[in-house]
Amino acid sequence: QVQLVESGGGMVQAGDSLRLSCAASGRTFRDYVMGWFRQGPGKERVFVATITGSGGSTYYADSVKGRFTISRDNAKNTVYLQMNSLNPADTAVYLCNARHPITRYNYWGQGTQVTVSS
Q1: 14 and 116 in contact (C-beta within 8 Å)?
Q2: Which of 33, 38, 52, 78 could share a disulfide with 99, CB 3.0–4.6 Å?
Q3: What digits encode the pLDDT tens for the residues 23-78?
Q4: Dihedrals φ, ψ of 53, to 5°?
């Protein structure tokens, strides 16, 4: 099993920065494509960012390009999401995702709340 635990969420003001962390279990963390998704109140879950196992490639939703940066530290089994220039539209529950390299099964964390006030 793969367990994912997010942390770092909180309440900030528009323009502030926040860094989310996702700690993962397992000894093959490097093989997993990791990602971040978010879900606002009454809205569906949407893609935010993803990063390949080696950290060599990243992909972002248009809404966060230039503001968010995804990274990973495979020695620590942790993936990060650095969020800069936050605005109220970024308010959501942020969920960590791990995709099994063979089965493509998706594992999810419990989510961490990010609230951005104007």
Answers
A1: yes
A2: 33
A3: 999 888 999 999 999 999 899 999 999 999 999 999 999 999 999 999 999 999 99
A4: -55, -40
